[in-house]
């Protein structure tokens, strides 16, 4: 009888002694707290453009903008030029909701649509001219650890679809100071995108017949 009582006490003591280890193992099984989820950004609401003069009498095709392979993702690109300017890097916990080319295309179509009829080139609708855009840069640049700037560079071509002739071509660029993190970069990207598109619109209107 005493032996059975001793065994019961021993088993209870062993259980109590093992309890911290069990809790620890359960904690390991659960794992560490999850890291913050990835934050996705777009370019924000687009301001309503005020268009001076009469609307364009020509139909403009605005196909998808193209971009180099290193920009063909949802990553927000930054470069540390003071360390390695040739190495594009991406924020781990922040990204775009779509590729920069897709975001820019959407913004550009909406802006041109405020000035006249626009088609996307996929619906078979006829157009008089095509505006082709190649993104050469869409990145945040750190020239030193404390400050950064946003850099956007576009090569834009205006093509007469009837004659297949190149009417005009120009490179547009903008560089504006930004906050030294992803959130600050996104805010400046939105402002810089709207600024550069205003220049593209004015340039295109000046070259379009009947524009």
List keywords for this structure.
211 residues, alpha/beta, 2 domains, 4 helices, elongated, disordered N terminus
A few lines on this structure:
The chain has four helices and eight strands. It is elongated. Strand 7 and strand 8 form a beta hairpin.
Q: Please mark out the parts with pLDDT under 50 across 5 or more consecutive residues, or reply none.
A: 1-7, 19-34
For the largest beta-sheet, the strand count, sense and barrel status come to: 8 strands, mixed
Query: Which term fits the overall shape?
Result: elongated
Question: What is the domain total for the residues?
Answer: 2
Level-1 CATH class name of the largest domain: Alpha Beta
Query: The CATH topology of the largest domain is what?
Result: Rossmann fold
Our estimate of the beta-strand percent is 25-35%
Oligomer: single chain
Residue share in helix? 25-40%
Taken in chain order, the helices and strands follow as HEEEHEHEEEEH
Mean pLDDT: 84
Number of strands: 8
**Structural class of the helices, strands and pairings?**
alpha/beta
Tally of contiguous helical segments: 4
What is Rg?
Answer: 28 Å
The CATH architecture name of the largest domain reads 3-Layer(aba) Sandwich
């Amino acid at each position: 009888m005493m032996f059975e009582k001793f065994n019961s006490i021993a088993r209870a003591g062993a259980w109590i002694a093992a309890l911290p280890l069990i809790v620890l193992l359960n904690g390991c099984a659960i794992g560490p707290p999850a890291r913050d989820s990835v934050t996705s950004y777009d370019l924000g609401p687009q301001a309503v453009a005020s268009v001076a003069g009469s609307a364009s009498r020509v139909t403009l095709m605005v196909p998808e903008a193209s971009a180099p392979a290193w920009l063909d993702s949802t990553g927000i690109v930054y470069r540390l030029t003071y360390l390695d300017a040739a190495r594009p890097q991406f924020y781990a916990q922040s990204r775009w909701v779509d590729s920069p080319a897709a975001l820019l295309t959407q913004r550009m179509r909406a802006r041109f649509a405020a000035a006249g009829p626009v088609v996307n080139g996929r619906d078979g609708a006829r157009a008089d001219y095509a505006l082709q855009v190649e993104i050469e840069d869409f990145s945040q640049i750190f020239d030193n650890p404390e400050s950064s700037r946003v850099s956007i560079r576009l090569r834009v071509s205006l093509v007469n679809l009837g004659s297949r002739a190149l009417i005009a071509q120009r490179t547009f660029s903008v560089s504006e100071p930004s906050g030294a993190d992803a959130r600050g970069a996104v805010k400046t990207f939105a402002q810089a995108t709207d600024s550069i598109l205003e220049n593209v619109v004015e340039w295109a209107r000046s070259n379009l017949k009947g524009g």
